[in-house]
Design goal:
Blueprint lengths: L6 E5 L3 H13 L3 E5 L2 H10 L4 E5 L7 H10 L6 E5 L4 H9 L4 E4 L4 H17 L8 E4 L2 E4 L4 E4 L5 E2 L2 H11 L8 H7 L13 H13 L9 E4 L3 E4 L4 E3 L3
Parallel strand pairs: 1-2, 1-3, 3-4, 4-5
Antiparallel strand pairs: 6-7, 6-12, 7-8, 8-9, 10-11
Helix pairs in contact: 1-5, 2-3, 4-7, 6-8
The structure holds calcium ion (CA).
């Protein structure tokens, strides 16, 4: 059976990158519209039906941040993969806090970009991206994010705080991706991007969350630590947005 061809929008003003990425995506069977200009990209997004947008940050006209912010404000939830400059941690955090779904740092390999695009499209087709995971399960544990309730086999149900649920939901919306402390501070706690804050609040919240949701507290499998980088959801976790 032939799957429906998916249309992607590529917004990148550097010719070499634009052409390489466009041709590689087309070779994978995607229909690709490309543009060098942020304002033109916004017009196309408003009229087109794209499965995903690959969006450079530095653009003439309207930059990638503004474009992302505008789309989300207008209720457009099309997945966005942002291309950021090397070492631009603030750019990455800013993009994610404005509603981008993922990022790649330049220089990147086209193969990695393709892998990210495919992973993101798979997730979108499972429906786990929207609305934010209402339920989450792993062997021995079930979490209802709408009811703020966690059930671990052999224990009394535990109530999650809204903050704990928000952390879990944020991770659930980004399966497989490592989320840093700074990103969580911006997205869940509302700190401004780039703020230099000394706080253990993220670690403490995750510690409390784990006591409620991890079947084995000493060997967390739901919220995994990636040393020096942050946290991500374990591979065994299933998310279900339908409930
Ligand atoms: Ca650029």
């Amino acid at each position: 059976m032939l799957a429906r061809v998916q249309r992607l929008l590529l917004v990148e003003d550097e010719p070499a990158i634009r052409i390489a990425v466009r041709d590689a995506l087309r070779a994978k069977g995607y229909e690709v519209d490309d543009t060098v200009d942020g304002a033109e990209a916004l017009r196309r997004c408003r009229s087109g039906d794209y499965a995903l947008i690959v969006l450079d940050v530095m653009l003439p006209g309207l930059d990638g941040f503004e474009l992302c912010r505008t789309l989300r404000r207008e209720g457009d939830r099309t997945p966005i993969l942002m291309l950021t400059a090397r070492g631009g941690e603030e750019d990455r955090v800013r993009g994610l806090s404005l509603g981008a779904d993922d990022y790649l740092t330049k220089p990147f390999s086209v193969r990695e970009l393709i892998a990210r695009v495919e992973a993101r499209l798979r997730r979108a087709s499972w429906g786990t991206d929207r609305p934010p995971g209402a339920a989450l399960a792993a062997p021995g544990v079930a979490v209802d994010l709408a009811r703020l309730e966690a059930r671990v086999e052999g224990r009394e149900p535990a109530s999650l705080t809204p903050r704990e649920a928000a952390v879990l939901r944020y991770l659930a919306e980004r399966p497989g991706r490592v989320v840093s402390r700074e990103e969580l501070l911006v997205a869940v706690w509302g700190y401004p991007p780039g703020a230099r804050v000394r706080t253990r609040t993220v670690e403490n919240t995750i510690g409390r969350l784990r006591k409620k949701i991890e079947p084995e507290r000493k060997r967390p499998r739901v919220v995994r630590t990636v040393h020096g980088a942050g946290w991500k959801l374990g591979e065994e976790v299933r998310c279900d947005a339908s409930s």
